[in-house]
Amino acid sequence: MRVLVLGGTRFIGRRVVERLHERGDQVLLVHRGLCEPPMWVPVAHLHSDRHALTAHADRVRQFAPDAVVDTYAMTAADVDDVLPALPDVPAVVLSSQDVYQAAVGLRTGTQEAAVPLSEEAELRRERYPYRGHGLPGVPEDYDKLDVEERWRPRGAVVLRLPMVYGPHDGQAREELVLRRVRAGRRHMPIGAGNLLWSRAHVDDVATAVLAALDTQRARGQVLNLGEKTTPTMRVWVEQIIAAAGADLQLVRVRDDLLPPDLAVLAAPAQHLLVDTRRAERLLDWNPGDPDERVTASVRWHLDNPATAGWTEHDTALEQQALTGLADHSQPMLM
User: Fold this and answer.
1) In sequence order, what are the beta bridge partners of 27?
2) Phi, psi (rounded to 5 degrees) for 31
C-alpha cells in the first residue's frame, strides 16, 4: 500500500509510520521538517507546511497514494487546506475523546454524562475548548469536532483517542510520578485517586490505525480506542511506582491540597471512560495487557527522562500538601 501520512514525526504518528514501514508499505510523510527523528526509518519525505500542500499537488499525484493517515489535524483550516490536494482514497484520522461533553465535566469539575461513553454519547455543546487557556502548542481554534466534520464526508475512519502513553510521549504522562522518583522523594500526596480515564499504549493505537486502513467495513466509522480494563488513577500511579522499583509512599491528603500537577488524583465529578467494543469488533483489535504496557513505558521514560527537573518550588508545594497547609484547587485541563 502507498500511504500518505500528514504529520507523523512525533509520538503517535511516529509509531504509525514505523509500523507502516515495518510491514512493507510505501510512505510519503508530509511535515515541516522541524521534528524529524535522526537515524530514522527510510521513508520518503515532503517538507511542507500542511497549509501549503496544494503547491505540491504534482508530488502528491506522482506518489498516487492508496490511503491517507492524518495524525495531526487540530483545526478546521488544518483539514480545509489539505483536502483539495488529496485524492479521494480511504483515510484514517486521529481525533480525541475531548469531543464528548463528558470531557467538559472532567475539565471543569461538573457532572455531564453517564459512562462508559459510546460513540453516540453527547458531543460537546460548545466549540474551542482550550480558547483563552494559552496552552503551549494548542491553537486558539483547536477543535477536533471541526476536524471530524470535514473528514467524515470523505468516508474517513475517525479514531477517537484516550490518554495515550508510551515511548516518545511529549506529554510524559507518567512524569507526575517519575519526576518525584528522580528527585528522591519518599512521600507523594494523593487525593481520592478514583478517576476513571481511558488510556491506551501508543503501539496499540498504531495497530488500530493499520487495521483501520485495511478494513473495508470500518470506512466512515467513528471508533473509540482504549484499553479493555481501566484502573483508577490511584492504581495507575501504584503501577508506575512498582514498574520504577521506587520506594515512594502515597500519602492521602484532601483534594484541595494537591499540587497542580496532581490535580488528576482528586475525586472527579465526571469520569472519561469509553466503550471500545465497536473498535474491537470492526477492526479485530485486541490491545495489549495494561500491566505489561505500563511497565515497558515506565522503563523507557526512566531511560529517556523528561528535561524538566525538580525545583525548590516543587519541594515547597509538596511539603505544604503533605502537612495540610496549601490550597491549590483548580479546574483540570486535559
Assistant:
1) 3
2) -160, 170
Residue in 282, 154, 152, 151 with CA at minimum distance from that of residue 216:
282
List, in sequence order, every residue forming a beta bridge with 200; answer none if it has no partner: 164
In tens, the pLDDT along 54-64 reads 999 999 999 99
**Full-model pTM:** 0.94
Q: Output the nine-digit C-alpha cell for 215.
A: 478494513
- In angstroms, rounded to a whole number, what is the distance separating the alpha carbons of residues 111 and 59? 49
Which burial class, exposed, middle or buried, applies to 110 when counting CB atoms under 10 A from its CB (0-12, 13-18, 19+)?
middle
Q: Which of these, 118, 140, 115, 145, lies nearest to 130 by C-alpha position?
A: 140
The backbone torsions φ and ψ at residue 107, rounded to the nearest 5 degrees and listed phi first, read -75, -35
Q: What are the pLDDT digits (tens) for 182-240?
A: 999 999 999 999 999 999 999 999 999 999 999 999 999 999 999 999 999 999 999 99
Can you tell me the distance from the alpha carbon of 63 to that of 72, in angstroms, rounded to the nearest whole number?
A: 21
DSSP letter, residue 113 = -
Residue pair 178/239 in contact (Cβ under 8 Å)? The answer is no
- Bridge partners of 150, per DSSP, are none
